[in-house]
Design brief:
about 170 residues, alpha+beta, three-stranded antiparallel β-sheet, 5 helices, 8 strands, disordered N terminus
Length: about 170
């Protein structure tokens, strides 16, 4: 990708009323080719002042939580510790199982097809391996036990995470 293409993109964004990022301050982290287009996606990272970075490290990452009713066992996903707990007890998940549960639960009620899950969790963008998703969902449901019903199959589409209903 030439520098001219980047400048053209920035100028178009400025014409549409968007404030473009200052390309001079960023560092190129990666360039991803866009298949069959001859174009590329440039990933640019920006430096953060040390004071802001220190504040961000002191604050713990939020856990996906819902308050449980008295006596009710709840499923908690702690992204910072990469741990899933049910009723206070840790559920042993593999790396991919945790990633899959985390991805599904990040947007409760949203349905994802196998291809979307393969792209997000396995970083694969082809149609191969759709059954891998099915096998991991099966294993994840077994490990979740009472909470297995939170991962719902949407027939002929894919899977979604359904949070527990409040009583």
């Amino acid at each position: 990708m030439s520098h001219q293409n980047v400048i053209d993109f920035v100028e178009r964004r400025r014409e549409q009323g968007h404030e473009p990022p200052d390309l001079g301050q960023g560092s190129v982290l990666g360039v991803l080719p866009v298949p069959e287009t001859g174009a590329a996606l440039m990933i640019v990272g920006y430096l953060v002042p040390a004071a802001v970075a220190a504040d961000a490290q002191e604050q713990p990452a939020p856990a996906l939580q819902r308050r449980a009713a008295p006596g009710e066992e709840d499923l908690v996903l702690d992204r910072a510790a990469r741990v899933a707990r049910a009723g206070g007890e840790e559920i042993e998940l593999t790396f991919r199982e945790f990633e899959l549960l985390d991805y599904l639960s990040s947007a409760p009620g949203r349905v994802y097809n196998r291809r979307q899950l393969m792209a997000a969790v396995w970083d694969r963008y082809d149609d191969e391996g759709g059954r891998t998703v099915d096998v991991h969902i099966l294993r994840l449901r077994r490990k979740l036990g009472r909470h297995a019903g939170r991962i719902v199959t949407v027939r002929n589409v894919g899977y979604k995470y359904q949070p527990a209903r409040r009583r």
